[in-house]
Amino acid sequence: MSEEAKLLGKSISYPKSYSPEILVAVPRSLNREIYGIYEPDKLFCGYDVWHAYEASFLLNNGMPITGILKIVYPSTSKFIVESKSLKLYLGSYNMTSLGKNPEEGIAEFTQTIEKDLGCLLETPVKVYFHKTTPFLPPNDFSEFEILENKEYTSDLRFSIYQEHPLYLSENITTVPGELKVGSHLLKSNCKITSQPDWGTIYIHLKANRTPAPASLLKYIVSLRNENHFHEEICEMVYQRLYELFQPEILVVTCLYTRRGGIDICPSRSSHPQYLPSHLLKPETLTTPAFRQ
Questions:
Q1: For residue 17, which of 73, 145, 250, 287 sits 20 to 30 Å off, Cα-Cα?
Q2: Half-sphere exposure of 227 (CA within 13 A, CB side)
Q3: Do 108 and 45 share a domain, yes or no?
Q4: E strands of the chain, at which residues?
Q5: Strands 177-189 and 145-146
Q6: 82 and 188 share a domain?
Q7: Residue 158 lies in a domain
Q8: What is the value of pTM for the model shown?
Q9: What angle do CA 70, 71, 77 make, to 5 degrees?
Q10: How many domains, in total, are found in the chain?
Q11: Which residues are tagged catalytic?
Q12: Percentage of the chain surpassing pLDDT 70?
């Protein structure tokens, strides 16, 4: 049995107490090699951002503490954490007592999670516990145009729902240009269970030639029946755009809808200064995407 399929698609009860042994690490190389990504550190930098909306534990007096947990770790890690194992691991804290007061409990909660995930993934992991949500959360993508909101979409025909990179070669603009575009039509399926994964994708591309917005939208829609993890979809799109356009700037960010109380938001960039700055701060909750 592969590590990827260890827990996904199986009926497994929540642990009744703190259970770090349930965490599962999945090698990033399993998917990268399919797309010829043998030296990822030379191709992109980036992070995986996870929001756990059902984070909770007990104080020593039995009072529950609840909030949103934000987890951030780099794309340079050899592994990703399998999502169901993380859900079960975080659920194992639900009846676990930590600390005499909220401050002490939150500190122990976040430090333990950082330690456990850091050991599992063999990389530094940053964790922050949010007790409240901001009234006006920052937005990294307010300047991005949504592709499906353009008038030309009524004239398009969509018929291919497996990844179709040839769409990116249609109607290429052969003069230097810069795109900041997004789409709420991102959909792929879980690699193991085939359950639908919905999301929003944002692309920032600057190059000597650029894809036509309509062609880019058709490509995004063609991912609809792809079976990959969220991180893999993000890197696949990045690799296709990088190979074809050899851009000066390229950033691909996928903000997926939560499932099982957790969402996953990978971001990959040609240069660290172009990564979405607010999204990558553990202490900052950003404006949710359309279906987050």
A1: 73
A2: 6
A3: yes
A4: 25-27, 45-58, 64-74, 79-81, 126-130, 145-146, 177-189, 196-207, 249-256, 262-269
A5: parallel
A6: no
A7: yes
A8: 0.94
A9: 165
A10: 2
A11: 190, 197
A12: 96
Residue 5 has pLDDT above 80, yes or no: no
Please tell me whether residues 108 and 163 are part of one structural domain.
no
CA distance 283 to 70: 8
* pLDDT given at position 154: 85
Residue 282: inside a domain:
no
CATH code, domain carrying 113: 3.30.1130.10
| pLDDT tens, position by position, 101-148 | 999 999 999 999 999 999 999 999 999 999 999 999 999 999 999 999
Q: Provide the residue range defining the domain that includes 62.
A: 3-130
Tell me what the mean pLDDT of segment 49-73 comes to. Answer: 98
The tokens describing 82, both together, are 């399998």
- pLDDT score for 6: 56
Domain annotation covers residue 135: no
pLDDT interval class at 41 (50, 70, 90): very high
102 and 158 share a domain? no
Has residue 118 been placed in a domain?
Answer: yes
Please tell me the predicted confidence (pLDDT) of residue 29: 93
Query: Do 159 and 190 have their domain in common?
Result: yes
Residue with tokens 């020593």: 60
Q: Which two tokens mark 12? A: 């497994």
- Taken in order 9, 13, 16, 21, the sign of the CA dihedral is negative
Within this chain, do residues 83 and 158 fall inside the same structural domain, yes or no?
no
Which amino acid is present at 266? P
Q: Contacts for 268-271 with beta carbons within 8 Å, 24 or more apart?
A: 268/44, 268/45, 268/46, 268/75, 268/234, 268/235, 268/238, 269/44, 269/45, 269/46, 270/44, 270/45, 270/242, 271/45
Domain co-membership, 125 together with 151: no
